[in-house]
Predict the structure.
Amino acid sequence: MVLEATMICIDNSEWMRNGDYAPSRFQSQADAVNLICGAKTQSNPENTVGVMTMAGKGVRVLVTPTSDLGKILACMHGLEVGAEANLAAAIQVAQLALKHRQNKRQQQRIIAFIGSPVKYDKKVLETIGKKLKKNNVALDIVDFGESDDEKPEKLEALIAAVNSSDSSHIVHVPPGDNALSDVLLSTPIFTGEEGGSGFAASAAAAAATGASGFEFGVDPNVDPELALALRLSMEEERARQEAIAKKAAEDTSNTENKDHASSSNNDSVMAEAEPATNVTADDKKEQPKDDDDLLQQALAMSMEGGASGSAAVADADMAEAGAVDPDLALALQMSVQDASMSSDSDMSKVFEDRSFVTSILNSLPGVDPNDPSVKDLLASLHGQGEQEKKEDKSDKPEDEKN
Amino acid sequence: MAAANTEAAAATAAAPAAPVQVPRGQVDLVDFIDWTGVECLNQDSSHSIVNALKQIFRDDEGLYLASDSDEQLLIYIPFMQVVKLHSALFKGPEEEGPKTVKLFSNKEHMGFSNVNDYPPSDTLELSSNHLVENKPVQLKYVKFQNVRSLTIFIEGNQSESDVTKIHKIALYGTTVDTTNMKDLKKIEEH
Protein backbone atom coordinates (compact mmCIF):
# COMPACT_ATOMS: atom_id res chain seq x y z
CA MET A 1 0.00 0.00 0.00
CA VAL A 2 2.45 2.62 -1.14
CA LEU A 3 0.85 6.04 -1.41
CA GLU A 4 2.07 7.34 -4.73
CA ALA A 5 1.57 9.96 -7.38
CA THR A 6 2.75 8.65 -10.75
CA MET A 7 3.39 10.36 -14.07
CA ILE A 8 3.57 8.06 -17.06
CA CYS A 9 5.57 9.31 -20.05
CA ILE A 10 4.38 7.79 -23.32
CA ASP A 11 6.66 7.59 -26.31
CA ASN A 12 4.60 8.58 -29.37
CA SER A 13 7.46 9.29 -31.74
CA GLU A 14 7.69 8.01 -35.33
CA TRP A 15 9.70 5.06 -34.04
CA MET A 16 6.51 3.63 -32.54
CA ARG A 17 5.05 2.68 -35.92
CA ASN A 18 7.35 -0.34 -36.08
CA GLY A 19 5.58 -3.72 -35.84
CA ASP A 20 8.22 -5.75 -34.01
CA TYR A 21 6.06 -5.79 -30.88
CA ALA A 22 2.63 -7.19 -31.79
CA PRO A 23 0.43 -5.55 -33.01
CA SER A 24 2.57 -2.41 -33.13
CA ARG A 25 4.95 -0.79 -30.73
CA PHE A 26 2.48 1.94 -29.97
CA GLN A 27 -0.45 -0.38 -29.32
CA SER A 28 1.50 -2.70 -27.07
CA GLN A 29 2.77 0.32 -25.19
CA ALA A 30 -0.82 1.56 -24.76
CA ASP A 31 -1.82 -1.83 -23.33
CA ALA A 32 1.06 -1.70 -20.89
CA VAL A 33 0.11 1.83 -19.83
CA ASN A 34 -3.48 0.79 -19.18
CA LEU A 35 -2.27 -2.12 -17.12
CA ILE A 36 0.05 -0.01 -14.99
CA CYS A 37 -2.61 2.68 -14.47
CA GLY A 38 -4.97 -0.02 -13.22
CA ALA A 39 -2.39 -1.50 -10.89
CA LYS A 40 -1.39 1.87 -9.44
CA THR A 41 -4.92 3.10 -8.79
CA GLN A 42 -5.97 -0.24 -7.32
CA SER A 43 -3.07 -0.66 -4.94
CA ASN A 44 -4.12 2.37 -2.91
CA PRO A 45 -7.37 4.31 -3.30
CA GLU A 46 -5.55 7.60 -2.79
CA ASN A 47 -2.98 6.95 -5.51
CA THR A 48 -3.05 9.26 -8.48
CA VAL A 49 -1.78 8.72 -12.02
CA GLY A 50 -1.10 11.26 -14.76
CA VAL A 51 -0.20 10.71 -18.39
CA MET A 52 1.93 12.74 -20.75
CA THR A 53 3.42 12.35 -24.22
CA MET A 54 7.07 12.88 -25.06
CA ALA A 55 6.80 13.47 -28.83
CA GLY A 56 4.22 14.88 -31.25
CA LYS A 57 3.87 18.62 -30.93
CA GLY A 58 6.29 18.78 -28.08
CA VAL A 59 6.00 17.42 -24.57
CA ARG A 60 2.39 17.58 -23.48
CA VAL A 61 0.60 16.63 -20.28
CA LEU A 62 -2.60 14.78 -21.20
CA VAL A 63 -3.90 14.26 -17.66
CA THR A 64 -2.52 15.72 -14.46
CA PRO A 65 -2.35 13.16 -11.65
CA THR A 66 -5.85 11.94 -10.88
CA SER A 67 -7.39 8.87 -9.28
CA ASP A 68 -10.13 8.71 -11.92
CA LEU A 69 -9.16 5.67 -13.99
CA GLY A 70 -11.72 6.52 -16.71
CA LYS A 71 -10.10 9.87 -17.31
CA ILE A 72 -6.69 8.28 -17.60
CA LEU A 73 -7.79 5.59 -20.03
CA ALA A 74 -9.82 8.01 -22.14
CA CYS A 75 -6.82 10.25 -22.81
CA MET A 76 -4.98 7.38 -24.45
CA HIS A 77 -7.42 7.31 -27.35
CA GLY A 78 -6.75 9.24 -30.52
CA LEU A 79 -3.13 9.93 -29.74
CA GLU A 80 -1.13 10.97 -32.75
CA VAL A 81 2.17 9.36 -33.56
CA GLY A 82 4.79 11.70 -34.90
CA ALA A 83 8.06 13.60 -34.51
CA GLU A 84 10.80 12.71 -32.06
CA ALA A 85 10.69 12.11 -28.33
CA ASN A 86 12.36 14.55 -25.98
CA LEU A 87 13.25 12.52 -22.92
CA ALA A 88 14.98 15.21 -20.88
CA ALA A 89 12.19 17.75 -21.28
CA ALA A 90 9.55 15.11 -20.58
CA ILE A 91 11.13 14.00 -17.32
CA GLN A 92 11.43 17.57 -16.12
CA VAL A 93 7.85 18.42 -17.02
CA ALA A 94 6.71 15.25 -15.26
CA GLN A 95 8.65 16.28 -12.19
CA LEU A 96 6.95 19.66 -12.21
CA ALA A 97 3.54 18.02 -12.51
CA LEU A 98 4.37 15.82 -9.55
CA LYS A 99 5.70 18.67 -7.47
CA HIS A 100 2.32 20.38 -7.55
CA ARG A 101 0.40 17.28 -6.48
CA GLN A 102 -2.39 18.02 -4.06
CA ASN A 103 -1.59 15.41 -1.47
CA LYS A 104 1.96 16.04 -0.30
CA ARG A 105 2.11 12.71 1.43
CA GLN A 106 2.21 10.90 -1.88
CA GLN A 107 5.57 9.59 -2.98
CA GLN A 108 6.52 10.83 -6.43
CA ARG A 109 7.23 8.45 -9.29
CA ILE A 110 7.80 8.81 -13.02
CA ILE A 111 7.37 5.85 -15.34
CA ALA A 112 8.93 6.44 -18.77
CA PHE A 113 8.37 4.23 -21.81
CA ILE A 114 11.30 4.75 -24.13
CA GLY A 115 11.16 3.08 -27.53
CA SER A 116 13.03 5.64 -29.61
CA PRO A 117 16.78 6.27 -29.54
CA VAL A 118 18.10 8.55 -26.81
CA LYS A 119 19.99 11.45 -28.32
CA TYR A 120 21.13 12.95 -25.04
CA ASP A 121 24.57 12.50 -23.55
CA LYS A 122 25.05 10.22 -20.59
CA LYS A 123 26.20 13.24 -18.60
CA VAL A 124 23.02 15.22 -19.29
CA LEU A 125 20.90 12.28 -18.22
CA GLU A 126 22.92 11.81 -15.05
CA THR A 127 22.43 15.46 -14.12
CA ILE A 128 18.69 15.08 -14.58
CA GLY A 129 18.80 11.88 -12.57
CA LYS A 130 20.53 13.59 -9.66
CA LYS A 131 17.98 16.35 -9.73
CA LEU A 132 15.17 13.82 -9.51
CA LYS A 133 16.85 12.07 -6.63
CA LYS A 134 17.28 15.34 -4.78
CA ASN A 135 13.57 16.05 -5.16
CA ASN A 136 12.62 12.61 -3.86
CA VAL A 137 11.29 11.43 -7.21
CA ALA A 138 11.61 7.77 -8.17
CA LEU A 139 11.97 6.80 -11.83
CA ASP A 140 10.98 3.57 -13.60
CA ILE A 141 12.07 3.00 -17.18
CA VAL A 142 10.65 0.54 -19.69
CA ASP A 143 13.30 0.25 -22.38
CA PHE A 144 12.02 -1.32 -25.59
CA GLY A 145 12.26 -0.81 -29.34
CA GLU A 146 15.47 0.77 -30.58
CA SER A 147 18.68 -0.17 -28.81
CA ASP A 148 21.28 1.58 -30.97
CA ASP A 149 23.67 4.24 -29.86
CA GLU A 150 24.29 2.79 -26.39
CA LYS A 151 20.72 3.45 -25.36
CA PRO A 152 20.55 0.74 -22.65
CA GLU A 153 23.80 1.98 -21.12
CA LYS A 154 22.56 5.56 -21.07
CA LEU A 155 19.31 4.59 -19.42
CA GLU A 156 21.11 2.42 -16.89
CA ALA A 157 23.26 5.41 -16.01
CA LEU A 158 20.15 7.54 -15.59
CA ILE A 159 18.56 5.00 -13.26
CA ALA A 160 21.79 4.65 -11.30
CA ALA A 161 21.80 8.42 -10.74
CA VAL A 162 18.17 8.48 -9.57
CA ASN A 163 18.11 5.34 -7.50
CA SER A 164 18.03 5.75 -3.75
CA SER A 165 17.24 2.74 -1.56
CA ASP A 166 16.23 0.63 -4.57
CA SER A 167 13.08 2.53 -5.43
CA SER A 168 13.84 3.00 -9.14
CA HIS A 169 13.82 0.22 -11.68
CA ILE A 170 14.59 -0.41 -15.33
CA VAL A 171 13.29 -3.18 -17.56
CA HIS A 172 14.71 -4.01 -20.98
CA VAL A 173 12.12 -5.67 -23.19
CA PRO A 174 13.48 -7.19 -26.40
CA PRO A 175 11.05 -7.69 -29.30
CA GLY A 176 9.40 -11.09 -29.34
CA ASP A 177 6.22 -13.08 -28.93
CA ASN A 178 5.47 -11.79 -25.46
CA ALA A 179 3.32 -8.69 -25.28
CA LEU A 180 4.93 -5.74 -23.51
CA SER A 181 2.30 -5.82 -20.78
CA ASP A 182 2.89 -9.53 -20.10
CA VAL A 183 6.58 -8.95 -19.56
CA LEU A 184 5.89 -6.09 -17.17
CA LEU A 185 3.63 -8.27 -15.01
CA SER A 186 6.49 -9.92 -13.19
CA THR A 187 8.67 -6.81 -12.85
CA PRO A 188 8.85 -4.49 -9.83
CA ILE A 189 7.46 -1.66 -12.00
CA PHE A 190 4.13 -3.42 -11.99
CA THR A 191 4.17 -5.27 -8.69
CA GLY A 192 5.42 -2.33 -6.64
CA GLU A 193 7.91 -2.49 -3.83
CA GLU A 194 6.13 -4.86 -1.52
CA GLY A 195 5.95 -7.51 -4.21
CA GLY A 196 2.47 -7.41 -5.60
CA SER A 197 -0.92 -6.12 -4.65
CA GLY A 198 -4.05 -8.22 -4.90
CA PHE A 199 -4.83 -6.72 -8.26
CA ALA A 200 -1.35 -7.45 -9.54
CA ALA A 201 -1.55 -11.05 -8.38
CA SER A 202 -4.94 -11.66 -9.91
CA ALA A 203 -3.95 -10.00 -13.18
CA ALA A 204 -0.83 -12.10 -13.26
CA ALA A 205 -2.89 -15.19 -12.59
CA ALA A 206 -5.28 -14.29 -15.39
CA ALA A 207 -2.37 -13.82 -17.74
CA ALA A 208 -0.95 -17.17 -16.71
CA THR A 209 -4.27 -18.87 -17.44
CA GLY A 210 -4.49 -17.15 -20.78
CA ALA A 211 -1.11 -18.47 -21.80
CA SER A 212 -0.85 -22.09 -22.91
CA GLY A 213 -2.18 -24.15 -20.01
CA PHE A 214 -1.07 -23.22 -16.51
CA GLU A 215 2.25 -21.62 -15.95
CA PHE A 216 3.56 -24.08 -13.41
CA GLY A 217 1.11 -26.88 -13.96
CA VAL A 218 -0.94 -25.44 -11.12
CA ASP A 219 -4.23 -23.69 -11.64
CA PRO A 220 -3.84 -20.35 -9.82
CA ASN A 221 -7.58 -20.13 -9.31
CA VAL A 222 -7.69 -23.43 -7.46
CA ASP A 223 -4.67 -22.87 -5.28
CA PRO A 224 -3.64 -19.20 -5.31
CA GLU A 225 -1.15 -19.59 -2.47
CA LEU A 226 0.79 -22.32 -4.18
CA ALA A 227 0.75 -20.36 -7.42
CA LEU A 228 2.03 -17.28 -5.63
CA ALA A 229 4.78 -19.27 -3.95
CA LEU A 230 5.85 -20.70 -7.28
CA ARG A 231 5.75 -17.28 -8.88
CA LEU A 232 7.86 -15.76 -6.13
CA SER A 233 10.42 -18.52 -6.34
CA MET A 234 10.59 -17.99 -10.08
CA GLU A 235 11.21 -14.30 -9.63
CA GLU A 236 13.96 -15.02 -7.15
CA GLU A 237 15.51 -17.45 -9.54
CA ARG A 238 15.36 -14.91 -12.32
CA ALA A 239 17.04 -12.28 -10.14
CA ARG A 240 19.69 -14.76 -9.16
CA GLN A 241 20.36 -15.69 -12.74
CA GLU A 242 20.68 -12.05 -13.65
CA ALA A 243 23.22 -11.66 -10.87
CA ILE A 244 25.14 -14.65 -12.18
CA ALA A 245 25.03 -13.30 -15.70
CA LYS A 246 26.39 -10.00 -14.47
CA LYS A 247 29.16 -11.71 -12.55
CA ALA A 248 29.99 -13.84 -15.53
CA ALA A 249 30.13 -10.80 -17.76
CA GLU A 250 32.59 -9.17 -15.39
CA ASP A 251 34.71 -12.26 -15.26
CA THR A 252 35.62 -12.29 -18.94
CA SER A 253 38.29 -14.92 -18.58
CA ASN A 254 35.77 -17.49 -17.51
CA THR A 255 33.73 -17.73 -20.68
CA GLU A 256 32.23 -21.08 -19.90
CA ASN A 257 30.30 -19.63 -17.01
CA LYS A 258 28.67 -17.12 -19.30
CA ASP A 259 27.32 -19.85 -21.53
CA HIS A 260 26.01 -21.66 -18.55
CA ALA A 261 24.09 -18.65 -17.23
CA SER A 262 22.49 -17.88 -20.53
CA SER A 263 21.56 -21.48 -21.18
CA SER A 264 19.95 -21.86 -17.79
CA ASN A 265 17.93 -18.73 -18.44
CA ASN A 266 15.62 -20.55 -20.79
CA ASP A 267 12.54 -21.50 -18.89
CA SER A 268 10.35 -21.07 -15.92
CA VAL A 269 10.35 -24.81 -15.35
CA MET A 270 13.90 -24.53 -14.18
CA ALA A 271 13.00 -21.88 -11.71
CA GLU A 272 10.47 -24.11 -10.08
CA ALA A 273 12.97 -26.85 -9.47
CA GLU A 274 15.10 -24.86 -7.07
CA PRO A 275 13.89 -22.59 -4.33
CA ALA A 276 16.79 -20.26 -4.89
CA THR A 277 16.80 -18.48 -1.55
CA ASN A 278 20.02 -19.79 -0.10
CA VAL A 279 21.88 -20.76 -3.22
CA THR A 280 24.96 -18.68 -3.78
CA ALA A 281 26.43 -17.90 -7.13
CA ASP A 282 29.46 -19.97 -6.26
CA ASP A 283 27.35 -23.06 -5.77
CA LYS A 284 26.00 -22.69 -9.21
CA LYS A 285 29.44 -22.42 -10.71
CA GLU A 286 30.58 -25.73 -9.31
CA GLN A 287 27.55 -27.60 -10.49
CA PRO A 288 28.14 -29.66 -13.57
CA LYS A 289 26.28 -28.47 -16.63
CA ASP A 290 24.32 -31.71 -16.89
CA ASP A 291 22.40 -30.83 -13.78
CA ASP A 292 20.03 -28.61 -15.69
CA ASP A 293 19.08 -31.39 -18.05
CA LEU A 294 18.70 -33.85 -15.22
CA LEU A 295 16.52 -31.49 -13.26
CA GLN A 296 14.30 -30.80 -16.19
CA GLN A 297 13.95 -34.48 -16.86
CA ALA A 298 13.06 -35.08 -13.25
CA LEU A 299 10.53 -32.32 -13.33
CA ALA A 300 8.91 -33.58 -16.47
CA MET A 301 8.58 -36.98 -14.87
CA SER A 302 7.11 -35.57 -11.71
CA MET A 303 4.62 -33.52 -13.67
CA GLU A 304 3.44 -36.60 -15.54
CA GLY A 305 3.15 -38.43 -12.27
CA GLY A 306 1.04 -35.67 -10.84
CA ALA A 307 -1.27 -35.69 -13.82
CA SER A 308 -1.90 -39.41 -13.94
CA GLY A 309 -2.58 -39.82 -10.26
CA SER A 310 0.17 -41.59 -8.34
CA ALA A 311 1.26 -44.13 -10.91
CA ALA A 312 4.90 -43.30 -10.55
CA VAL A 313 4.83 -43.61 -6.81
CA ALA A 314 6.64 -46.71 -5.74
CA ASP A 315 6.88 -46.08 -2.07
CA ALA A 316 4.01 -47.13 0.10
CA ASP A 317 4.47 -44.19 2.42
CA MET A 318 4.19 -41.79 -0.42
CA ALA A 319 1.03 -43.36 -1.64
CA GLU A 320 -0.46 -42.83 1.78
CA ALA A 321 0.55 -39.21 1.78
CA GLY A 322 -0.91 -38.87 -1.67
CA ALA A 323 -4.26 -39.97 -0.38
CA VAL A 324 -4.14 -37.20 2.19
CA ASP A 325 -3.09 -34.37 -0.05
CA PRO A 326 -2.21 -34.48 -3.73
CA ASP A 327 -0.11 -31.30 -3.47
CA LEU A 328 2.00 -32.77 -0.74
CA ALA A 329 2.42 -35.96 -2.72
CA LEU A 330 3.52 -34.00 -5.74
CA ALA A 331 6.03 -32.03 -3.72
CA LEU A 332 7.43 -35.11 -2.03
CA GLN A 333 7.62 -36.96 -5.29
CA MET A 334 9.57 -34.13 -6.83
CA SER A 335 11.93 -34.04 -3.91
CA VAL A 336 12.66 -37.74 -4.00
CA GLN A 337 13.21 -37.78 -7.71
CA ASP A 338 15.38 -34.72 -7.58
CA ALA A 339 17.43 -36.31 -4.89
CA SER A 340 17.96 -39.50 -6.84
CA MET A 341 18.59 -37.85 -10.18
CA SER A 342 20.98 -35.10 -9.16
CA SER A 343 23.29 -35.78 -6.28
CA ASP A 344 24.03 -32.11 -5.83
CA SER A 345 20.40 -31.04 -5.73
CA ASP A 346 19.49 -28.16 -3.48
CA MET A 347 16.07 -29.65 -2.95
CA SER A 348 17.48 -32.46 -0.83
CA LYS A 349 19.32 -29.92 1.27
CA VAL A 350 16.10 -28.10 1.88
CA PHE A 351 14.41 -31.30 3.01
CA GLU A 352 17.20 -31.97 5.43
CA ASP A 353 16.18 -28.89 7.30
CA ARG A 354 13.61 -30.43 9.59
CA SER A 355 12.15 -27.25 10.95
CA PHE A 356 11.58 -25.95 7.44
CA VAL A 357 9.80 -29.10 6.36
CA THR A 358 7.67 -29.12 9.47
CA SER A 359 6.67 -25.52 8.90
CA ILE A 360 5.67 -26.37 5.33
CA LEU A 361 3.63 -29.32 6.50
CA ASN A 362 1.91 -27.16 9.07
CA SER A 363 0.92 -24.67 6.43
CA LEU A 364 -0.59 -27.30 4.16
CA PRO A 365 -4.33 -27.69 4.66
CA GLY A 366 -5.53 -31.07 5.85
CA VAL A 367 -2.11 -32.40 6.78
CA ASP A 368 -1.29 -33.35 10.34
CA PRO A 369 2.46 -33.17 10.93
CA ASN A 370 2.03 -35.42 13.95
CA ASP A 371 0.52 -38.16 11.83
CA PRO A 372 2.77 -41.25 12.27
CA SER A 373 2.93 -41.96 8.53
CA VAL A 374 4.09 -38.45 7.78
CA LYS A 375 6.65 -38.69 10.58
CA ASP A 376 8.01 -41.93 9.17
CA LEU A 377 8.31 -40.35 5.79
CA LEU A 378 10.19 -37.38 7.18
CA ALA A 379 12.59 -39.63 9.01
CA SER A 380 13.28 -41.62 5.86
CA LEU A 381 13.83 -38.40 3.90
CA HIS A 382 16.25 -37.18 6.50
CA GLY A 383 18.17 -40.45 6.43
CA GLN A 384 18.39 -40.30 2.68
CA GLY A 385 19.67 -36.75 2.80
CA GLU A 386 22.49 -37.72 5.11
CA GLN A 387 23.47 -40.65 2.96
CA GLU A 388 23.71 -38.39 -0.02
CA LYS A 389 25.81 -35.94 1.88
CA LYS A 390 28.39 -38.64 2.38
CA GLU A 391 28.24 -39.53 -1.26
CA ASP A 392 28.67 -35.89 -2.17
CA LYS A 393 31.85 -35.67 -0.18
CA SER A 394 33.33 -38.60 -2.00
CA ASP A 395 32.16 -37.21 -5.35
CA LYS A 396 33.40 -33.69 -4.92
CA PRO A 397 37.13 -34.18 -5.55
CA GLU A 398 36.27 -35.75 -8.89
CA ASP A 399 34.10 -32.81 -9.81
CA GLU A 400 36.86 -30.39 -9.11
CA LYS A 401 39.21 -32.29 -11.36
CA ASN A 402 36.76 -31.85 -14.15
CA MET B 1 3.82 26.95 28.61
CA ALA B 2 2.92 23.36 29.40
CA ALA B 3 4.43 22.17 26.17
CA ALA B 4 7.61 24.03 26.81
CA ASN B 5 7.94 22.52 30.26
CA THR B 6 7.58 18.96 29.04
CA GLU B 7 10.01 19.75 26.28
CA ALA B 8 12.56 20.99 28.76
CA ALA B 9 12.04 17.93 30.91
CA ALA B 10 12.54 15.59 27.99
CA ALA B 11 15.69 17.37 26.97
CA THR B 12 17.03 17.03 30.48
CA ALA B 13 16.50 13.32 30.37
CA ALA B 14 18.37 12.95 27.08
CA ALA B 15 21.18 15.39 27.68
CA PRO B 16 21.49 16.09 31.38
CA ALA B 17 24.19 18.73 30.86
CA ALA B 18 22.17 21.44 29.15
CA PRO B 19 18.41 21.75 29.39
CA VAL B 20 16.89 23.93 26.68
CA GLN B 21 16.40 27.48 27.82
CA VAL B 22 13.14 28.42 26.25
CA PRO B 23 13.04 32.18 25.68
CA ARG B 24 10.79 33.96 28.13
CA GLY B 25 7.19 34.14 27.06
CA GLN B 26 7.62 31.77 24.12
CA VAL B 27 6.39 28.22 23.66
CA ASP B 28 7.58 25.27 21.67
CA LEU B 29 5.62 25.32 18.43
CA VAL B 30 5.82 21.56 17.87
CA ASP B 31 2.19 21.21 18.93
CA PHE B 32 1.02 23.51 16.16
CA ILE B 33 2.74 21.80 13.23
CA ASP B 34 0.40 20.40 10.59
CA TRP B 35 2.07 17.02 10.19
CA THR B 36 0.14 16.01 7.08
CA GLY B 37 1.85 18.80 5.15
CA VAL B 38 5.40 18.45 6.40
CA GLU B 39 7.77 17.76 3.55
CA CYS B 40 11.50 17.35 3.28
CA LEU B 41 13.37 17.24 0.00
CA ASN B 42 16.62 15.35 -0.42
CA GLN B 43 16.15 13.44 2.80
CA ASP B 44 17.55 9.97 3.17
CA SER B 45 14.43 7.81 3.36
CA SER B 46 15.84 5.82 6.27
CA HIS B 47 16.68 9.00 8.22
CA SER B 48 13.63 11.12 7.61
CA ILE B 49 12.47 14.51 8.84
CA VAL B 50 10.35 13.12 11.68
CA ASN B 51 13.56 12.05 13.40
CA ALA B 52 14.48 15.69 13.84
CA LEU B 53 11.09 17.28 14.28
CA LYS B 54 8.77 15.01 16.27
CA GLN B 55 8.63 15.44 20.01
CA ILE B 56 10.01 12.11 21.16
CA PHE B 57 12.30 11.21 18.28
CA ARG B 58 14.21 14.47 18.24
CA ASP B 59 15.48 14.00 21.77
CA ASP B 60 16.83 10.58 20.92
CA GLU B 61 20.53 10.94 20.12
CA GLY B 62 20.49 7.88 17.88
CA LEU B 63 17.91 9.28 15.49
CA TYR B 64 18.74 11.99 13.00
CA LEU B 65 17.73 13.53 9.73
CA ALA B 66 20.27 12.98 6.95
CA SER B 67 20.60 14.35 3.44
CA ASP B 68 20.74 11.97 0.51
CA SER B 69 22.32 12.96 -2.78
CA ASP B 70 24.19 16.04 -1.58
CA GLU B 71 24.47 18.23 1.51
CA GLN B 72 21.39 20.40 0.95
CA LEU B 73 18.02 19.93 2.60
CA LEU B 74 14.72 21.71 2.06
CA ILE B 75 12.16 21.38 4.82
CA TYR B 76 8.63 22.69 4.56
CA ILE B 77 6.66 23.02 7.81
CA PRO B 78 3.06 24.26 7.70
CA PHE B 79 1.36 25.29 10.93
CA MET B 80 -2.21 24.65 11.92
CA GLN B 81 -2.65 28.26 12.89
CA VAL B 82 -0.84 31.52 12.42
CA VAL B 83 2.23 31.83 14.65
CA LYS B 84 4.93 34.34 15.51
CA LEU B 85 8.36 32.85 15.34
CA HIS B 86 10.90 34.03 17.89
CA SER B 87 13.80 31.63 17.80
CA ALA B 88 14.93 28.30 16.41
CA LEU B 89 17.13 25.55 17.71
CA PHE B 90 19.29 23.27 15.56
CA LYS B 91 21.19 20.41 17.05
CA GLY B 92 23.54 18.16 15.13
CA PRO B 93 26.97 16.56 15.04
CA GLU B 94 29.89 18.99 15.07
CA GLU B 95 31.19 17.88 11.68
CA GLU B 96 28.05 17.16 9.67
CA GLY B 97 25.70 19.61 11.34
CA PRO B 98 24.07 22.38 9.32
CA LYS B 99 25.94 25.64 8.77
CA THR B 100 24.14 28.06 6.50
CA VAL B 101 20.41 27.96 7.14
CA LYS B 102 17.91 30.13 5.28
CA LEU B 103 14.39 30.59 6.56
CA PHE B 104 11.44 31.61 4.40
CA SER B 105 8.00 32.36 5.76
CA ASN B 106 4.80 31.57 3.86
CA LYS B 107 6.47 30.26 0.70
CA GLU B 108 4.60 27.24 -0.56
CA HIS B 109 5.87 24.94 -3.32
CA MET B 110 9.51 25.77 -3.02
CA GLY B 111 12.03 23.52 -4.70
CA PHE B 112 15.79 23.51 -4.95
CA SER B 113 15.42 25.20 -8.32
CA ASN B 114 13.84 28.33 -6.89
CA VAL B 115 15.48 28.78 -3.50
CA ASN B 116 17.39 31.74 -4.86
CA ASP B 117 14.32 33.40 -6.36
CA TYR B 118 13.19 34.93 -3.08
CA PRO B 119 15.14 36.80 -0.46
CA PRO B 120 15.15 34.72 2.73
CA SER B 121 13.29 36.10 5.74
CA ASP B 122 16.36 35.34 7.78
CA THR B 123 19.72 33.65 7.30
CA LEU B 124 21.54 31.87 10.11
CA GLU B 125 25.23 31.03 10.20
CA LEU B 126 25.49 28.29 12.77
CA SER B 127 28.75 27.52 14.51
CA SER B 128 29.61 24.17 16.00
CA ASN B 129 28.86 25.66 19.43
CA HIS B 130 25.27 26.27 18.42
CA LEU B 131 24.88 22.68 17.33
CA VAL B 132 26.14 21.17 20.55
CA GLU B 133 24.92 23.68 23.11
CA ASN B 134 21.18 23.15 22.92
CA LYS B 135 20.63 26.90 22.81
CA PRO B 136 17.99 28.53 20.60
CA VAL B 137 19.14 31.11 18.05
CA GLN B 138 17.10 34.28 17.96
CA LEU B 139 15.56 35.22 14.63
CA LYS B 140 14.56 38.55 13.14
CA TYR B 141 11.34 38.62 15.11
CA VAL B 142 9.72 41.33 12.99
CA LYS B 143 10.03 39.19 9.87
CA PHE B 144 8.10 36.31 11.39
CA GLN B 145 4.97 37.99 12.74
CA ASN B 146 2.44 36.20 10.57
CA VAL B 147 3.75 32.74 9.79
CA ARG B 148 1.45 30.12 8.30
CA SER B 149 4.25 27.96 6.98
CA LEU B 150 7.99 27.93 7.31
CA THR B 151 10.49 26.70 4.75
CA ILE B 152 13.95 25.87 6.04
CA PHE B 153 16.68 25.63 3.44
CA ILE B 154 19.90 24.12 4.70
CA GLU B 155 22.57 25.14 2.26
CA GLY B 156 25.66 23.51 3.66
CA ASN B 157 27.23 21.83 6.63
CA GLN B 158 30.19 22.51 8.90
CA SER B 159 32.73 20.26 7.20
CA GLU B 160 31.38 20.70 3.65
CA SER B 161 30.94 16.96 3.35
CA ASP B 162 28.22 15.33 1.26
CA VAL B 163 25.91 14.36 4.08
CA THR B 164 24.25 16.78 6.46
CA LYS B 165 22.90 15.38 9.70
CA ILE B 166 20.50 17.04 12.11
CA HIS B 167 19.47 15.59 15.46
CA LYS B 168 16.88 18.12 16.38
CA ILE B 169 14.98 21.11 15.09
CA ALA B 170 12.85 23.07 17.54
CA LEU B 171 10.92 26.26 16.88
CA TYR B 172 9.90 28.69 19.60
CA GLY B 173 7.37 31.48 19.37
CA THR B 174 3.80 32.37 20.21
CA THR B 175 0.53 31.69 18.54
CA VAL B 176 -1.48 34.57 17.19
CA ASP B 177 -4.93 34.57 18.66
CA THR B 178 -7.23 33.60 15.87
CA THR B 179 -10.73 32.30 15.78
CA ASN B 180 -10.69 28.54 15.88
CA MET B 181 -13.47 27.65 13.45
CA LYS B 182 -13.99 24.33 15.18
CA ASP B 183 -15.06 26.11 18.37
CA LEU B 184 -17.85 27.96 16.59
CA LYS B 185 -21.19 26.38 17.21
CA LYS B 186 -24.15 26.64 14.96
CA ILE B 187 -26.94 28.63 16.51
CA GLU B 188 -30.02 26.49 16.84
CA GLU B 189 -32.82 27.70 14.65
CA HIS B 190 -36.04 28.49 16.42
Observations:
- Chain B touches chain A at residues 36-37, 39, 41-46, 68-70, 72, 109, 111-112 (CB under 8 Å).
- Residues 7-17 of chain B have pLDDT under 50 and may be disordered.
- The helical segments of chain B are 2-14, 50-53, 128-133.
- The first strand of chain B starts at residue 27 and ends at 28.
